[in-house]
Q: What sequence folds into this?
């Protein structure tokens, strides 16, 4: 569905973000895009949506070049930016003006989503809080039934019950035809939703692996003491939270935060395991 | 559902499904929630539930009736017992043994305690 | 699927853009109407006072400067606000990701910044003018001397003759030519401000204005200096003594020239818009 080939991107000479990035994303998955602040999560997403232009390299989304901003592709993209804009009008008028651009827009689904999010349909967008507006724009985006769903920090600004609603909604939104990419630094909000992790670090993709693959190759466990098998460990109350190679085919629960820190700290040890 | 720290999510969901069946909440020969429905309830990726259901089909706890959906098998309960038994012996018993050994607990004491526990609870 | 232009998508886009742009537009229009009406109220002659005098044609002279100064101000503000949102990350994202082609979006911009404001400005100006003429000058007539066919003849102006866009009350034989240049000039103004609103990320209007002033001053300076360089201490030598002003086609040529420059700016704007990043 998405093919990135040798992408080079920089905002200026001193701010290089990507060096020769290549990867492929396919439909039927929820990708979690992780990275430190400034690693380029939002920029990668913007590249996919054609909002910024790379210096070199090729991006192919559903057979289109996103930089051309062709309507045939735009109607298949649902992009939820971190900072978004909604005009000061009623939800109904917003839908009336924007939904017809999307041939697969599902009005019933939109109504269901608003209901799930507890948002009254007749409300004016200007009277809403940031979190409520975010729910509206997420509902709109999903109701377009776009094939590519891109969300930049979607849980920012959502309260605790809304985060649970969001997880339910995303679990229901994933279909065979859709490719969902979510960037986040609040991994705990989403770690059971993500089935493939993409981590950006030092201008590269530091890790791209499905949760199953990670769990096959690595073992996440509590240890009393660190031994030489440990790849990475963090001290905790009950000893250490550690990552070791998965020698005995154990089925452990992937700890996204631990993995993230391990990738940042022990790139060299992890690389051979995943290649 | 609250997931525990250290067991793979798909296995925890498998435990949940088995428990529903053992408790009789999902009677045999009844259609069980679809992958999507269970994923929504658990707030997890549908692919994870898919993996759970694959595992349970292998264990003959549920079966796929073509075009209709997933059903609890007739002998689900006994299959679950077998499955859980191996799981317990493989995964949980070693920890118990380790503690018995470390804390120096006598087998006779253990048996007495076990008997009273069964008497009180079942 | 046509990725360049589709009528259905285009009309959807017109509706969508109006939803947000319409408010600003109507508000500006309201202010402009208020200003025009204000000027008319203060300056328009009351017949009870002027009936017996012949001052009316001079009393309504304020209309020309009002029309020519207010017009560019209004259309430049409208043109300057249309793409102003591109400087705002969130708004630009929603604009650029709307499933319509770049051409459709740009043509919509031209319609809303050039065609609609120019037409509506001319329309409301003439409506206000019509109302005042009807109210105050409907039974006032005036005889003026007009140079026609090599001699002066008397001509009576009454009622409709006082309307701004009729102009038979003044000796404006080249009114049409002025109008031609004016309209091409207003297109140039909108094109420049449209480009400005795409080009600058913040304070688009002011920055565009400053840029234009700087550009015009530099151009003037060069013009004056070049004139000095070429013609200082030189005397004109010509077989006839008349000035060789622009010929009969002069205004048309000027208008065409201005329009071509405007088109150039529109094209620059389109290219800038295509390359806009968030």
A:
């Amino acid at each position: 569905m998405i093919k990135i080939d040798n992408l080079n991107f920089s905002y200026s000479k001193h701010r290089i973000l990507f060096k020769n990035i290549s990867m492929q994303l396919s439909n039927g998955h929820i990708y979690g895009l992780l990275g430190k602040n400034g690693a380029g999560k939002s920029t990668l997403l913007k590249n996919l949506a054609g909002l910024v232009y790379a210096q070199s390299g090729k991006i192919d989304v559903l057979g289109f070049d996103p930089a051309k901003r062709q309507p045939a592709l735009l109607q298949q993209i649902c992009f939820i930016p971190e900072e978004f804009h909604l005009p000061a009008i009623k939800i109904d008028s917003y839908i009336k003006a924007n939904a017809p651009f999307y041939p697969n827009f599902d009005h019933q689904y939109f109504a269901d989503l608003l209901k799930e999010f507890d948002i009254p349909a007749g409300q004016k967008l200007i009277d809403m809080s940031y979190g409520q507006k975010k729910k509206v724009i997420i509902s709109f985006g999903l109701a377009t039934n776009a094939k590519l769903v891109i969300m930049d920090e979607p849980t920012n600004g959502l309260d605790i019950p809304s985060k649970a609603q969001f997880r339910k909604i995303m679990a229901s939104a994933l279909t065979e035809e859709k490719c969902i990419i979510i960037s986040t630094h609040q991994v705990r909000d989403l770690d059971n939703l993500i089935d493939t992790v993409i981590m950006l670090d030092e201008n590269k993709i530091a890790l791209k692996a499905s949760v199953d693959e990670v769990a096959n190759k690595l073992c996440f466990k509590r240890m009393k003491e660190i031994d030489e098998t440990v790849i990475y460990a963090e001290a905790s109350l009950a000893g250490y939270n550690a990552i070791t190679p998965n020698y005995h085919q154990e089925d452990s629960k992937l700890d996204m935060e631990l993995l993230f820190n391990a990738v940042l700290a022990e790139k060299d040890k992890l690389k051979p395991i995943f290649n | 559902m609250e997931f525990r720290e250290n067991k793979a999510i798909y296995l925890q969901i498998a435990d949940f499904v088995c428990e529903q069946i053992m408790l009789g909440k999902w009677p045999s020969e009844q259609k069980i929630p679809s992958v999507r429905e269970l994923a929504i309830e658990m707030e997890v990726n549908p692919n994870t539930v898919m993996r759970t259901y694959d595992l349970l089909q292998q264990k003959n706890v549920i079966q796929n009736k073509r075009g209709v959906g997933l059903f609890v098998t007739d002998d689900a309960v006994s299959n679950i017992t077998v499955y859980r038994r191996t799981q317990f012996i493989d995964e949980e018993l070693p920890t118990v043994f380790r503690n018995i050994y470390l804390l120096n607990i006598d087998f006779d004491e253990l048996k007495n305690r076990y008997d009273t526990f069964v008497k009180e609870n079942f | 699927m046509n990725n360049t232009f589709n009528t259905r998508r285009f009309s959807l886009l017109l509706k969508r853009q109006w939803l947000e742009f319409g408010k600003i537009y109507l508000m500006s229009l309201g202010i402009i109407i208020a200003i025009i009406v204000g000027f008319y109220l203060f300056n328009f002659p009351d017949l009870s006072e002027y009936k017996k005098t012949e001052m009316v044609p001079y009393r309504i002279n304020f209309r020309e400067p009002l029309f020519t100064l207010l017009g560019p101000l209004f259309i430049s503000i409208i043109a300057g606000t249309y793409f102003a949102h591109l400087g705002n990350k969130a708004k630009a994202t929603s604009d650029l990701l709307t499933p319509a082609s770049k051409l459709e979006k740009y043509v919509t911009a031209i319609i809303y910044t050039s065609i609609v404001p120019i037409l509506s400005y001319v329309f409301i100006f003439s409506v206000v003018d019509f109302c005042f003429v009807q109210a105050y000058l409907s039974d006032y007539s005036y005889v003026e001397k007009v140079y026609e066919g090599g001699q002066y003849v008397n001509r009576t102006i009454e009622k409709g003759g006082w309307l701004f866009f009729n102009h038979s009350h003044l000796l404006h034989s080249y009114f049409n030519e002025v109008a031609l240049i004016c309209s091409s000039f207003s297109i140039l103004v909108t094109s420049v401000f449209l480009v400005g609103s795409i080009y600058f990320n913040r304070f688009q209007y002011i920055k565009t204005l400053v840029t234009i002033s700087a550009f015009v001053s530099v151009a003037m300076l060069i013009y004056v200096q070049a004139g000095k360089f070429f013609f200082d201490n030189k005397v004109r030598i010509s077989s006839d003594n008349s000035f060789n002003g622009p010929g009969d086609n002069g205004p048309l040529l000027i208008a065409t020239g201005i329009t071509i420059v405007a088109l150039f700016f529109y094209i620059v704007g389109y290219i800038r818009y295509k390359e806009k990043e968030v």
